[in-house]
Each structure stands twice: as structure tokens, then as C-alpha cells.
């Protein structure tokens, strides 16, 4: 359940939840253009492996290549937690935790797979879009004893 510093169940929070659902639906459909359409044209995207992608057009192409290849038939798990806060009325920070890529036949995440994702969304011409995305694998076991 999303939490935020705005009124619970606000219209903005509902719109952001729909944007996140569209993001996941585009992934499940293997549609790079639809996935990228949830982002601003000048978006910055950092994948779980540290790949930096700039702009909607490049993001659409890179994601489609993945959907046609190693990510074919995959979908995103639902987040374990989602937080939303609004630093300003037209900027939202969304953090989802416990998300993983589910391969065909998988019902849940393996312990080593979940990540935490930070998205910044902006309201442009009345529409919310993600403008920044950072995905980081959750590290198991805490800090090393090096």
C-alpha cells in the first residue's frame, strides 16, 4: 500500500499508482515503446546492472531489445512496499522495494533477486511521468566483515 506525505488516497497518488501499473503492464507485454512512454522524453534510467540510458527513444530501443531477447516472457513482481512523497506539488518520489523480474513459470522472487527502485515523477501538462529511475539489487546479509 502506498504511503505519502499527501492526503492518503489522493488523486495524485492514484495517478502515480496507475503509472506504475502501466509501467509493469508494458514490461509484461514485452512492449519497449509502451514501457518508455511512462517516462519523460529526457528521462534518465539506471538499470540494476548499472547501465545508464538517457531519453525515451533510447530507452524504448534498449528495452525492446531486451524484451525480444533475454527478458522475453518475463514480468515484474509486485513491490513488497511502495512509498510516495511529494517534495513539491508537481514532483513525486516513489520508492518500491522487493521487486524482481519473474521468468516464465516463476510465482515469486528468489532470495537473491529483489531490488529497490527509486523513481522521480513529474507532472507535465497535467500528466504524471517518470523522469528518473534507479534500480539497485538488495544486498543480503548486511555489510561484509572485510
Q: What structural keywords apply?
A:
single chain, 146 residues, alpha+beta, 6-stranded mixed β-sheet, two-stranded antiparallel sheet, 8 strands, 36% strand, globular, disordered N terminus
Fold blueprint:
Layout: H1 11-29, H2 32-36, E1 39-46, E2 52-54, H3 56-68, E3 75-76, E4 81-88, E5 91-99, E6 101-102, E7 115-124, E8 127-137
Parallel strand pairs: 1-8
Antiparallel strand pairs: 1-2, 3-6, 4-5, 5-7, 7-8
How many individual helices? 3
Structural class: alpha+beta
How far the N terminus sits from the C terminus, by CA atoms, comes to 37 Å
Helix content: 25-40%
The description of the largest β-sheet is: 6 strands, mixed
Measured by DSSP, the beta-strand proportion falls in 35-45%
Rounded mean pLDDT is: 91
Shape: globular
Low-confidence stretches: 1-6
Strand order of the largest sheet: 2-1-8-7-5-4
Kindly describe this structure.
The protein is α+β, with helices and mostly antiparallel strands and 146 residues long. It is 25% helix and 36% strand. The protein contains three helices and eight strands. The chain has helices at 11-29, 32-36, 56-68; strands spanning 39-46, 52-54, 75-76, 81-88, 91-99, 101-102, 115-124, 127-137. The strands form two sheets. The protein has a six-stranded mixed sheet with strand order 2-1-8-7-5-4. A two-stranded antiparallel ribbon has the order 3-6. Strand 7 (115-124) and strand 8 (127-137) form a beta hairpin. It starts with 10 loop residues before the first helix and ends in a 9-residue tail after the last strand.
